[in-house]
TrEMBL record:
Transmembrane residue ranges: none
Gene3D superfamilies: Periplasmic binding protein-like II
Keywords attached to this entry: Signal
Protein name per the record: PBP domain-containing protein
Domain PBP: 88-288
Keyword Transferase found: no
Feature: compositional bias, Low complexity: 29-39
Organism for this UniProt entry: bioreactor metagenome
Length: 321
């Protein structure tokens, strides 16, 4: 299970947003209000043709709040969503299962909604085998970034150099403008959101070199620690998602590399100028009933109000539906 510290779950970044949130009906954005204190959002289910055009607003409570799972990097967003929809303080004990485990939980009926990074092909195959169809809506953007130790003089790599390092074709830093030293290329475990992004956005079918023992890191934070403090850290490289290393696991001993001369930032991710950008998603099962709490939440986070919350948490956002 993944957990985030209390200091990252402060209510302050979303207070201004909460003041402007009101009822949301069928995915339609609402107008700002002037409430003086946090209050729950009350989206309404989309009415059918036989229903009244003004249905009773849906109120989220602790009892009907959908179970939300997701990726480590979406923990702050999950906390913010629960706080806004319930009208409560931010929680300091939000846990998630991690990207692919979260999808498995949804497929198996053990959770209701995901705020999550893209699934691996193996996970999608599992959904097919279980006969479960998923509805996925992009709600934000993040990027795969490459980390080096601050003592490493290399500032930028080309996309071809990145592939060369991780395919094993480039093994010495001197070949990419660094010192004459062997490259220690850390990888993530196969069923992780970061590894899925690595395979899809960077390697694109080129096989990755087999990593030496100890060079495949299970936890996102563990990879940052390896680049920052492990023996030989000066000559190491690894990859992670931008949001996590810039907002959740800050470490002055690491530096993010530019790729093709473009540094990762919210602006370069939003514009697509940084090369390794990918959406993250709200996900529900396609058999979630109309008017169910999970479908109401799924619809709401795609609206202008939902996207404002995503932005307030420091993520790059997707296009508003």
């Amino acid at each position: 299970m993944k957990r985030i510290s209390k200091r990252l779950l402060s209510l302050l970044p979303v207070c201004a947003l909460i003041l402007g949130l009101a009822a949301c009906s069928g995915g339609t954005a609402s107008s700002p209000s002037s409430s003086a204190s946090p209050s729950p959002v009350s989206p309404s289910p989309t009415p059918s043709a036989s229903e009244s055009p003004s249905p009773e607003p849906f109120a989220f409570t602790q009892e009907n709040m959908p179970r939300i799972d997701g990726s480590t990097a979406t923990i702050p967003l999950i906390s913010a969503v629960r706080s806004v929809l319930l009208g409560t303080e931010r929680e300091d004990d939000v846990t998630v299962s991690g990207t692919d485990n979260a999808y498995v939980n949804l497929i198996d009926g053990k959770t209701d909604v995901l705020l999550v990074y893209a699934p691996s092909p193996d996970t999608l195959d599992y959904a097919d085998k279980q006969g479960v169809k998923l509805e996925m809506a992009p709600i934000g953007k993040d990027a795969l970034v490459f980390l080096v130790n601050k003592k490493n003089p290399v500032q930028s790599l080309t996309d071809k150099q990145v592939v060369g390092i991780y395919s094993g074709a480039i093994t010495n830093w001197k070949d990419v403008g660094g010192k004459d030293a062997e490259i220690r290329a850390y990888q993530r475990q196969l069923l992780s959101g970061s590894q899925t992004m690595m395979n899809k956005l960077v390697m694109k079918g080129t096989p990755m070199a087999e990593a030496p023992a100890g060079y495949v890191i299970g936890e996102m934070g563990g990879l940052v620690d390896a680049i920052a403090t492990f023996d030989g850290a000066e000559y190491s490289i690894g990859y992670n998602v931008y949001y996590y290393v810039s907002r959740m696991k800050l470490d002055d001993n690491i530096r993010l590399l530019s790729v093709n001369g473009v540094a990762p930032s919210i602006d370069s991710i939003s514009s697509g100028d940084y090369p390794y950008v990918n959406d993250f998603y709200a996900v529900i099962r396609s058999d979630a009933p109309e008017g169910s709490p999970q479908r109401i939440l799924y619809n709401w986070i795609q609206t202008a109000d939902g996207q404002a919350l995503v932005r307030s948490e420091g993520y790059a956002t997707a296009a508003v539906k």
